[in-house]
Amino acid sequence: MAPEQHSGGEELGRFLRARRTQTSPQAAGLTPGPGIRRTPGLRREELATLAGVSIDYYTRLERGKETRPSPAVVDALGRALQLDDAEHQHLRDLAVRAARYAPKPAPAPSRTVRPHLKLLLETVRPNPAYIVSRSMDILAHNPGGLALYAGIADWPVKQRNIARYLFLHPAAHEVFPDWENQIRGCVARLRALAGTDPDAPDLTTLVGELLLKSPDFAGLWERYEVTGRKHTAKTFQHPHVGKITLVFQGMALEGTPGHRMGVYTADPGTPDHDAMLLLDMTATPTEPRPSASEHKR
Questions:
Q1: Residue 26: C-alpha distances to residues 8, 17, 126 (Å)
Q2: Which secondary structure element, helix H or strand E, spans residue 204, and what is its range?
Q3: What pLDDT sits at residue 165?
Q4: What is the Cα Rg of the chain in Å?
Q5: CA neighbours within 13 Å on the CB side: how many for 37?
Q6: Average pLDDT for residues 255-284, to the nearest whole number?
Q7: Which of 30, 147, 175, 285 has the fewest CB atoms within 10 Å, i.e. is most exposed?
Q8: CB neighbourhood size of 34 (10 A)
């Protein structure tokens, strides 16, 4: 099963429909009338009224037939749907794409990591760290950065992907005590990326695989959430070092096609820091450290 490909207007409508069906009348400030509601969430006419547009206009928006909503209409819909800041910005981005005023296309995917970035991963040891692509492929790592995801080293290098691990690796449920929160945040990030660049090959390939192999992923994908959990601390139940809670920091890497670096830290002198040290010492390096000559190139 491959993810559906959509024009900008269709993707805008898909997002509006998903958020409408998940917004209760009470949350939107409405008092539901008598009788059984045949559809969950808001009705089209209720959302149209709240946003100050005609039902015909809103229906055309949701069906992808109207592709140039004004910024005022977009913002009114965002307020009516009780969107948070990230969701509201995503709605604006979809409206821009639907009107075909999209910014420059996303850079082509690449797995190449420059030697100085690999050296940086070694420099931050014993803190676990890795570099991932925009679709969460693990492109480079220090020993602890890979070892945190217990069992992922058994996969071929090109198969190592954080989203794939969360949904398809048998160890993921045990490694992450809050697995449900982890997968929601993961899908929300992929949804946000795919919403504004839905035909990107690296994303469509991964999403297609997960839709086919994971009912959990398919259900979350249909919800079209684009914001995940905000907490930076992550707890791992690791088979070699036990329970360990680390603070995560992700950062964009300049001059790369959407690559990001993730680093985990713990306060010195704590059991979590001791466990992090043990993980770094016992983890098996899976690739050689960059040499000085590589660094100079």
A1: 30, 18, 50
A2: helix 201-213
A3: 98
A4: 22
A5: 13
A6: 94
A7: 285
A8: 4
Residue of 48, 50, 83 whose CA lies nearest to 66: 48
The rounded distance, in Å, linking the Cα atoms of 265 and 272 is: 9
Counting Cβ atoms within 10 Å, is residue 21 exposed (0-12), middle (13-18) or buried (19+)? middle
Put residue 268 in one of left, alpha, beta given phi > 0 → left and psi -120 to 50 → alpha. Answer: beta
Answer for the pair 195, 94: CB distance below 8 angstroms, yes or no. Answer: yes
Q: Is 186 exposed, middle or buried (0-12, 13-18, 19+ CB in 10 A)?
A: buried
Q: Which of 83, 66, 28 is nearest to 50 (CA)?
A: 28
Q: Is the distance from CB of 28 to CB of 80 less than 8 angstroms?
A: yes
For tokens 């959302």, the residue is 47
Neighbours of 39 (CB within 10 A): 9
Q: Is the pLDDT of residue 113 over 90?
A: yes
End-to-end CA separation in angstroms for the chain: 43
d(CA 15, CA 27): 18
Burial profile 256-279: b = 16 or more Cβ within 10 angstroms, e = fewer: bebbbbbbbbbeeeeebbebbbbb
Contact call for residues 179 and 166 (beta carbons, < 8 A) = yes
DSSP 285: P
pLDDT tens per residue, range 155-181 = 999 999 999 999 999 999 999 999 999
